[in-house]
Amino acid sequence: MALLTAAARLFGAKNASCLVLAARHASASSTNLKDILADLIPKEQARIKTFRQQHGKTVVGQITVDMMYGGMRGMKGLVYETSVLDPDEGIRFRGYSIPECQKLLPKAKGGEEPLPEGLFWLLVTGQIPTEEQVSWLSKEWAKRAALPSHVVTMLDNFPTNLHPMSQLSAAITALNSESNFARAYAEGINRTKYWELIYEDCMDLIAKLPCVAAKIYRNLYREGSSIGAIDSKLDWSHNFTNMLGYTDAQFTELMRLYLTIHSDHEGGNVSAHTSHLVGSALSDPYLSFAAAMNGLAGPLHGLANQEVLVWLTQLQKEVGKDVSDEKLRDYIWNTLNSGRVVPGYGHAVLRKTDPRYTCQREFALKHLPHDSMFKLVAQLYKIVPNVLLEQGKAKNPWPNVDAHSGVLLQYYGMTEMNYYTVLFGVSRALGVLAQLIWSRALGFPLERPKSMSTDGLMKFVDSKSGNHVGLSALSSPITLSHAHRHFLARPVDFLYLLHFKLRVLWTYPSWSLLETSFSRLYMPLSK
């Protein structure tokens, strides 16, 4: 409690609800996460129930036609507890920024980066954990990590040309055989107990993911060598890097940072929303997370850091490793003028440098300041934003997380770019599964938004504007289907149709609209 009070004094009331919640229920004496949740959940249920009773009819925002056609960008339509993305500040995990998490979350002995276990505890409870609580979580995950034999056999028999993300998704789906929730649901468990079984599945899945991911890596890139055994004395990231076959302590530190900062990015991104959506059907965490990984595998979501490395490698190949600012500027302009983008720059929500980029840059400045690829990334950071501002098209000219992560992985010897999204997936489990526990604890219902067709949307807009059929009539040229040809075969019917069109046009005095309508009316008749 003292730590939370100090944090509140230090950081102010930036996220009052989160800090109040944490302070109200802080339970530093307990190291069992499930026990703490059992205390938190009823009080949070009551808080939300009261809030909905008082403000359930409050309008949160408006939806525009552009939002519906534009991927629902900016549309407020989800409740997602674990993180919030501010366009100007970047991501906040339960109210804490990345620098704050780096400062407050427990670290490994002798380490400088936060342990992902601590972040998961924060995402689930809203509380900064103690070292004892993080140690308990590390041991708990180590205890749950073993893979069932059928999953190991399946991974060992995948063809080597099957993408690592396809293997990851398939293995997670196969782990569904171990689902506590699926078994309990089939036996008729009371819905008030859903969260308890979801919690067990999420803990099991997070524990097993490094083993699955390491097995995929060894099979594809290390001739199928053994991943070895889990060491219960090591933290989650350290066990993961050991199983991958990396023994450099700095790489383990990088992995702790990487798994922490990629864990969550509020609820609207593809992987988080997919997990939330599929989970709302009461699919167990294995099925929900496997679906999320299929979304993450898409090139517009999880492939970006790979695209950055490809672009950087091509840049070095064409202009050399030591390139002047002027030549680099010309190369960037050539990229833009050819209709391409500079990968790693811009973000759908952020309007500043991604703080996840910044903390990776700080890691590189500390551990690999003379690496040629890092120096190129740093040089681009000085030049690209100004070029994008000059071009005038980018809403956000600043770098995002993907502009840096691949360079760090390559420096420590992980050059297999196809595998990078698997690391992203292991990390993302922390955020989306923490939210999945709360979704079931709070009784969130099946997600079922209303969809509309283009014609239906046009009619709706017509009715809102008071012009009824006008816009739809003008937007629909006459086509000569067989039925139309039969209808227009009688002159009297053609005159009736023309009369109807003119009545519609009477509400639109603009001659340009009149001319457009007549051209649409007569054009098919001339064919």
UniProtKB/TrEMBL annotation:
Catalytic residue list: 301, 347, 402
GO function terms (MF aspect): citrate synthase activity; identical protein binding
Keywords on record: Transferase, Tricarboxylic acid cycle
Any one Gene Ontology BP term: citrate metabolic process
Subcellular location: Mitochondrion matrix
Pathway: Carbohydrate metabolism; tricarboxylic acid cycle; isocitrate from oxaloacetate: step 1/2
CDD domains: ScCit1-2_like
Primary residence: mitochondrion
Cellular component GO terms, alphabetical: mitochondrial matrix
The reaction(s) this protein catalyses: oxaloacetate + acetyl-CoA + H2O = citrate + CoA + H(+)
The protein's assembly and partners: Homodimer.
Family label: Belongs to the citrate synthase family.
NCBIfam families named in the record: cit_synth_euk (TIGR01793), PRK09569.1 (NF007128)
PANTHER family noted in UniProt: CITRATE SYNTHASE, CITRATE SYNTHASE, MITOCHONDRIAL
The protein's role, per its UniProt record: Key enzyme of the Krebs tricarboxylic acid cycle which catalyzes the synthesis of citrate from acetyl coenzyme A and oxaloacetate.
Protein's name according to its UniProt entry: Citrate synthase
Organism: Canis lupus familiaris (Dog)
Gene name of the encoded protein: CS
